[in-house]
Design goal:
This protein is of the alpha/beta class. The protein folds into two domains: about 55-270, P-loop containing nucleotide triphosphate hydrolases (Rossmann fold); about 275-390, CBS-domain. It has helices at about 20-25, 30-40, 65-75, 95-105, 125, 130, 140-150, 165-180, 195-215, 225-230, 250-255, 260-265, 275-280, 295-300, 325-330, 360-365, 380-390, and strands at about 5-15, 40-50, 55-60, 80-85, 90, 110, 185-190, 215-220, 235-240, 240-250, 285-290, 305-310, 315-320, 345, 365-370, 375-380. The chain has a six-stranded mixed beta sheet with strand order 6-7-8-3-9-10, sandwiched between helices. A four-stranded antiparallel beta sheet has the order 2-1-4-5, sandwiched between helices. It has a three-stranded mixed beta sheet with strand order 11-12-13. The protein binds adenosine-5'-triphosphate and magnesium ion. Adenosine-5'-triphosphate binds near residues 14, 43 and 223.
Length: about 400
């Protein structure tokens, strides 16, 4: 893997006294003070990160935290006040207009939240727009635009006009326009935020599928952590023009750096990120399948359990025995528990919790976590699962 984008200590001041504001930042004055005293907006105050080739990197944070400013520094739609941005090792903020035009037209493409399609152009001409301004002959640009429309499922609409399209379809045309130039880097600034939730989900899935095939370097801005987690790469959480934490979804969900990051987690579907091994605990007690119903009742009552996982002599999970069933066996004077065993739900340690079916909520039995050898390595209680799933509401 090689580094595709490197952002080094980027500061961005909006206003007419950037030097003065820079000086105040270096002297340790806060963003608020600088705004109050000299009326300059500090949008970024020292941001650094690297994006690997083929990675999907998410910038996420509240409104005003500097996400759009940051992503625009990557293709120099916004020029950093200080610091630098490298693409393929070349310093982009030091390039001249010609070099920039090349890099913007070929290497980097951008998709915005509200994709301004040209109303008097067909879908095909809209998708081919980036190639047209590069002066590509019609045949060739139409061929590439058609390929891109096919990728986003809109080839059948090539001769229609934007007014005939729904919001989701318009955004697909925007994506096709970016893909048509076959860029190495895709910059996406809240591309799905204006779409209604179902269409948004669909678009996220399509982007993930496309990305699995294309392996572009993507920088994706969102204010929705769920969306960021779904995309599956690393996430940088921004606040007031700084990065508070960078990590993959599991890092952020299991080890939030501070309260600001934690606040986003309240609304998040943690089940999609957490794995069984992250939350499993040891069962308080297990039963051997050679043991009697009476032993089972005693073991469960001692530890206040409603059920007990049952293993054989080789330590493999063979089933689960409910307390009520064990009591029935004792009443019937039946020692052998084997015919009363039920099949618990089972997950591998690395399986996402989301794979635990909601059925377990009705049975009240936890999920058994079982390794490749079918040994019981832990349990995720149904209460835990309810909490994690419930926490996302
Ligand atoms: N062109 C501009 N001129 C002056 N100030 C700006 C400009 N663009 C952004 N800002 C300010 O810079 C700060 C960061 O804005 P930015 O748009 O980067 O945030 P954001 O995280 O993208 O927010 P949102 O989620 O609302 O899109 C904000 O305080 C904003 O008001
Ligand atoms: Mg923005």
């Amino acid at each position: 893997m090689s580094v595709k984008i490197e952002v080094k200590d980027v500061i961005k001041i909006y206003g007419d006294k950037p030097e003065l504001a820079l000086k105040m930042i270096r002297e340790g004055h806060s963003k608020e003070e600088i705004l109050k005293r000299i009326d300059q907006t500090v949008a970024l105050q020292g941001v650094s990160f690297e994006v690997e080739e083929g990675e999907t990197f998410v910038l996420m944070g509240l409104s005003g935290s500097g996400k759009s400013t940051m992503i625009r520094c990557i293709n120099l739609l916004v020029k950093p006040t200080s610091g630098s941005v490298y693409v393929d090792g070349k310093r982009i903020d030091a390039m001249d207009r010609k070099q920039l035009r090349e890099i913007r037209g070929e290497k980097i493409a951008m998709v915005f939240q509200h994709f301004a399609l040209y109303p008097n152009r067909t879908v095909l001409d809209n998708a081919a727009f980036g190639l047209e301004i590069r002066g590509m002959p019609e045949d060739e640009r139409y061929k590439r635009a058609e390929d891109a429309l096919e990728k986003v499922g809109l080839l059948g609409w090539r001769d229609r006009f934007p007014t005939e399209l729904s919001g989701g379809m318009k955004q697909r045309v925007g994506l096709a326009r970016a893909l048509a130039v076959d860029p190495e880097i895709l910059l996406m600034d809240e591309p799905f935020s204006a779409l209604d939730p179902l269409i948004r989900n669909e678009m996220q899935e399509e982007l993930i599928a496309l990305q699995n095939e294309m392996k572009k370097t993507i920088v994706f801005v969102t204010h929705d952590l769920d969306e960021g987690l779904r995309l599956g790469g690393r996430i940088a959480i921004m606040r007031d023009g700084r990065i508070e934490q960078i990590g993959d979804g599991r890092d952020i969900v299991t080890q939030p750096a501070n309260e600001y990051v934690e606040r986003f987690l309240d609304k998040v579907n943690r089940a999609s990120v957490l794995r069984a091994e992250d939350v499993m605990t040891s069962p308080p007690e297990v039963l051997g399948d050679w043991e009697t119903a009476w032993t089972a009742v005693k073991k469960m009552q001692r530890k206040d359990m409603d059920y007990i996982f049952v293993i054989n002599k080789n330590n493999k999970l063979v089933g689960v025995l409910l307390l009520e069933d064990a009591i029935r066996l004792v009443d019937e004077n039946e020692k052998n528990i084997k015919k009363m065993l039920k099949k618990p739900e089972v997950l591998e340690p690395s399986a996402p919790l989301a794979e635990a079916s909601s059925k377990i909520l009705n049975t009240g039995i936890g999920v058994a976590v079982v390794n490749e050898e079918k040994n019981l390595v832990g349990e995720v209680s149904w209460r835990e699962i309810m909490e994690i799933i419930g926490g996302s509401r």
